[in-house]
Predict the structure of LysR family transcriptional regulator.
Amino acid sequence: MDVLRTFVTGTALGNFAKAAERLGRSPSAISLQLRKLEVQAGQALFEKQGRGLALTEAGEVMLHYAQRILELNDEATARLQALEEMEGWVRIGVPQDFAETWLPNLLGRFARAHPKLRVEARVDRGSHLIKGIETDRLDLALTWGGLRSRHDQVVARRSIMWIGRAGFEHDRREPLPLVAFDPPCAFRTAALEALDGNRIAWRHAFASPSLAGLWAATTAGLGVTARTVDGLPEPLTPLTPEDAGLPPLGEIDLVLRTSRSEPHAPVAQLCALIREALASRS
């Protein structure tokens, strides 16, 4: 399992030196593990690509099965550790960006591992989730933006991108049509600060309380939006600022927030699973 986890983590990070640091192993130990895996597979799993490594066809097959094996192993481990059966509720706030991608599957695996534990998930805007944490209506929440309390922890960082239809180019003679949430919204703030700082006129072309609404309006060509590429639907694409005539937007933190400084065991375990899942997607 250690070898498979090294293989999956290094492939996800695109760099086995980073995998060594994250997994707490030396680069030589990582290399030994990978050689062992290739010997066991009986085929080359990597091939040279420029200065780096790329997966061979056999490597792609191995990656697919390794991910499934690790998921099943982690679920079994969690289930065995839960023989004392944790009971009660875990109330989690989920950002809209991940509500239709990897997070529901993770919550499903967590719930199956703890059948006496009730998981209640709320999909909402970050400002509402933060209020849920502050009023103790949520045990943990994953939101975009900065730290607000000592309980908060930055678990990932993403580039903010201009998102639009392929080939979009801003005509400086007209205000930029912006698709965005009403405030408060960290992405809206980043976009307006960049536009105002570069003296680019803008207009709020479309507002929606849901991310799906923003994606739909942007797909329809009503304007551009500022977001990360998490959950990005087709046919939308990240726009290169230089090509689109727009300023760069920088980065944004993804923060794991808990209502208590020392969460009870089910919440702490779910936090650990979320951190691990995000690490493999960095």
Q: What stands out?
A: The CA atoms of residues 93 and 122 lie 5 Å apart. Residues 2-81 form a domain with the Arc Repressor Mutant, subunit A fold (CATH 1.10.10.10). The two ends are 21 Å apart (CA to CA).
